[in-house]
Structures are given as C-alpha cells and as structure tokens.
Amino acid sequence: MAGIFKNKDAGFYVDGILAGDMSILSRAITLVESQNPLHQKLSQKIIDGVIGHTGSSFRLGITGVPGVGKSTFIETFGKEVISQGHKLAVLAIDPSSSKSKGSILGDKTRMEGLSTLNNVYIRPSPSGGTLGGVTRATHETILLCEAAGYNFIIVETVGVGQSEITVSKITDFFLLLMLAGAGDELQGIKRGIMEMADALIITKADGVNVERAKAARAEYAHAMHLLQAPESGWNARAQVCSSVDNTGIKEVYTMLTEYKQFVINTGYFIHKRNSQQYEMLITNLDEQLKQTFYSSPMVKKRLEEIKNNSSGIPIHPFSVIQALLSEFFKSQGRY
Amino acid sequence: MAGIFKNKDAGFYVDGILAGDMSILSRAITLVESQNPLHQKLSQKIIDGVIGHTGSSFRLGITGVPGVGKSTFIETFGKEVISQGHKLAVLAIDPSSSKSKGSILGDKTRMEGLSTLNNVYIRPSPSGGTLGGVTRATHETILLCEAAGYNFIIVETVGVGQSEITVSKITDFFLLLMLAGAGDELQGIKRGIMEMADALIITKADGVNVERAKAARAEYAHAMHLLQAPESGWNARAQVCSSVDNTGIKEVYTMLTEYKQFVINTGYFIHKRNSQQYEMLITNLDEQLKQTFYSSPMVKKRLEEIKNNSSGIPIHPFSVIQALLSEFFKSQGRY
Question: What is the span of the domain harbouring residue B304?
Fold first, then answer.
C-alpha cells in the first residue's frame, strides 16, 4: 500500500468503509487479496471491525460458460437491481486467472453501462493464489461490501468445475446461465452443477431464437425435476430471458425475491449463512495454524535440512514429523 | 483389526512385509487406509519400519476414460512385466468411489488372468475419504508393496480431472490410454492431462481398427510435439497397441526401460523421487498438525460453542481465531 494509504490503521479503513467510501473499500479489498502477512493481519482487523455491519445483502452466484452472455446479463439485470433501490456490488471468481494472472473483469469494455451508474461497485477477480485463497478473499470481500452499504452482491464465476462449488458456498442463490440448443456437453455442464443450481436461465431468447429457448426451458425444467432437490427445499426453476430485448429480466428479480422469502420462512436462509460463516472461520483457522507452524524459524530450518538431505540415510517420515511437532509445541509454550 | 491380527505391533507387520507375506501386506494396507487414529499411528510406525527397503520399484501411472480398455491393457501388459522377471503390484485411485463407496477394482471378473499369477498383487481402490486422503494412502501403499519386494507398481486411475494430477505426483511415468477416432471431447481429455503424459498409447489397434489407430497415433504425436515438454526433458511418445492381439505391448515395456535409463542418467529420476517424498512428508505434517489441534478437548469445546452461537452477537472471526490459537499453544507448552 503506497501513498496516502500508507501506515493507516484498521480504524481508518473501518470508518471509511462504514461511511461508504469506495476508494477506501477498494484499498481494503486489496489488503484482503494480498498474500503479504502484514496486509493479511491488517485486513483481519478490518473485517473484525466491520463484522457487525455485515450479512444484510442478498448474495447471488452466477455461472455459465464463456459465450453464454454473462456480462450482458449482469449489465441488464444489474440495472433492474438498481432500479429496485439496491446498492449493487459485482465480484468475480476466476481460478483460471490465478495462473495467467489475467482477470475476466479486467476488460474495461465489459459492463460499461453498469459501471458508470451510481450505487454500483465492480471488482475484478483477484489474481494469483489458489482457488481456496480466491474463495476466502471473495467471501471477505462480500463482507466488506456489505459493510459499505451494498445490499445486493453478484458473484460471477467462469464455468471451470471446482469454482461453482465454491461460489455456491459463499452465496445465497446459485444461478446457472445456459444457451438453447448448444448441448450440455459443449457447455461443459455436468449433472453436479445442475444439481447445485437454484435456477437455470436460458439466455439470448430473442429474435429467431425465442422458440428454441422456450423449448429448451421446458426440457431443462423437466430434467431438473428429475434431479435431487436442493437442500433448501426450494424447487429449482428454469426461465428464459433476453438481455438485448430486456425480457425475462424483471422475472429473474421477482424469482429471487420469492426465494428469499421462502428460505427466510423455512429458516434455511439463516441456517446456510451460519454454516458459511463457520466454514470461513475453520478455513482461516486452518490457514493460520499452518502459518504459525511454518513461519517458525526452527521449523523452517529443520525442513530445509530434510529437503537437502543427501546423506543417503533414509528419512523416517513419521518419526521426523512427531519430533518436529513436539519440538514446535514445546517452543510455543515458552511464550 | 480383528482375529489373528489383533494387538499385533508394528514389528510384526514390518517383519511380515519384509518376508513378502501377502496377507500381512494386505492387513498393513488396510491400516494405511483406515481413518481410525489408532490404525493410523500403527501404520505410521510400520512405514517408518520399512522405509529403508522402499524406493526400488518402477512406478507407472495409467489413466484413460472408461471403455478405453485399461483392465485388458493392464492384464496383457502385466503379463509382459512378469515375464521380464518383475514382481508386480496393481493399485487403483478412484476418487469417485469415495462417494459411492464402490471400487473400480472391486469387480472380481477384472484382470482374472493376471490375478491368478504368482508375483502379482492386486489391490482395489480405498473407499471413503477425500482425494487427498486416497492419494496419501496410495503413496504409502506403494512403499509397503516395495518393501514386500514388488519392484514394478502400476497405479491405475479413472479419468476424472484431479486424480491424474495426484497420480502423476506419486509415480515415475504417466501413461495415457486413448481410443482412435473417439474425439478428445468425448474422452474427457484436456490439454493439461496430455501435457502431463509421458506417453500416449492408442488401444484396440486390431482388426479393422489398425489403420485408424495408426492415423490417430500420428496425429497425437504431432499434437504432443506442440505441447510444452515435460519437466523431465523426455520427449513424450505416442504408440499403438492391441491387448487382444498382444501387439505393441512389449514396445511399451521397452519404452519404459528407455525412459528409466534416460531419467537416471539426467538425475531427474532421483530428483523427482526426492520431491515426492518431501511432499508426502509435508502432507502428513499438515494433517497431523491439524489433527493435534482439532482433537484437543479445549478446541473442540470452543468450536462447538461457536457453532451453536445463537446469541445474536456477531462473532469477530479473527479475534476468535487468535484467542483460540494462543490458548491452544499455551496448553501444549504445559506438557
């Protein structure tokens, strides 16, 4: 962190976020995404500082293969969300960018209309790190956005297997976008992903495509009927929409409202949120336990010795592990 | 562990394994696969006891989608391996069986000819547990088999994404079986998997299929030429074979011999083995660190309280984590 943000403490960020300052929010998210231990410590204090102001948004996960029209859907649907009086944040999970260091939202031409509106905050995917790390960062980013007053959060993911599972772990509702007639295989949609979806929306239902989209909707509605019902008790739906004609968009919003009411009534909403919060705690606990261990100079030194062992004497891995853990715990007790 | 094996100590297993006793070997592998902490402790002592007698086998990973003919290939190829004077062990990794509790090698009709031969040990996939756990167990099973005198180990995996990465982590050579003309898409083969392969074998090159298989071989040879070269410096090859006609099988064995000589000469063989051994140590270290932490009665009690928190007071996750870690470390220092 450079410039005017240098040496600011957690209180500075907490105050700025609670005041809805987008620039301070962005900087705090950068801290959350950082792998620098000092940044991580600071971001943890910030999250603890705002946690009482989180949890108030509707968290929508959206997935679908490239070409399905995710950006244009979010652009059109986002405007509907804004028109309903919400403050909207759009975040992205893209584990493939972890490798290429690119970002699916980095392209400035995407969501151009939406990004210029008031009450909209768009945040590209964090680059670098493992999928687990990206998930953790996105979950924490949701909390920061909520504290800054964003009460509708869209988490976008690209369709690459594992990331759908993680997005469903940190959102309230999982929306799967599909094309009519492209075939399940081509769209990389596996049964498991359809089973996770709370709704399936056929996009590009416009022009000559309308009838095909409707036919596909009926087919998918039937297929989803055969699948295992989601844990929530909600009956997954299939709908059509056109981002270009702006048809079916309001209906998606209405469906989400119905869903929220349904799961609030059944108690599933708060149950799922609590589980997610607990899971985040365990993930962070695991991470910090490991960090405490592996950052110990004694552990580092011993592991370096083991790695460079070229004595020809075979290492007895489990004796080594026991000795290392016991030495570490003894050294911790001293403080 | 019931019956005559009850209350046997590590020394009993170590002696039995080193004497090549298949029944004791099987029981030791069951301990390695067990999630019971007592079994795990015992299995760790067994591994430490035999570790000086491990590392002497050639470890071959084989993958390919269902229908490619993995079983018949392993049956035919396994006989070639035996005829070259080896003792052969065939293990399986099947993460999908973690869910269904089934096992791809559970079917008794598979590899019938091979399983009746002397010097062959066939072990079905461990059921239950995470992919990480299955990988760890398979790696440790390799060590036990080596200690029992098996000097050629085949690790079979089904083609489901993540498991290929793990099999390539615990073997010396990664063999990808493919069908001619079935198309990459249908075979679920992604570029990443082809990049990991040290060789690609077109199966079922017999009867009317011979020409098609040869054409596919040429195509794949070209495609692999364009891919990134493996870290080993070995140029990945494409060959054809027929398990039914027993053609191309000896050639696979010859190729493996050439590979082994190549990587021994370059030093890559021992380098990869050392990395694998170190990675296994770290995996186990992570696991035992977590186990020590989460099995602490204090930690269990505090986590239960957090999970059941319905006070309405928001939990400050990172303060909770800091407090929990610090309390835990203090309690450890006391012993």
Answer: 296-333
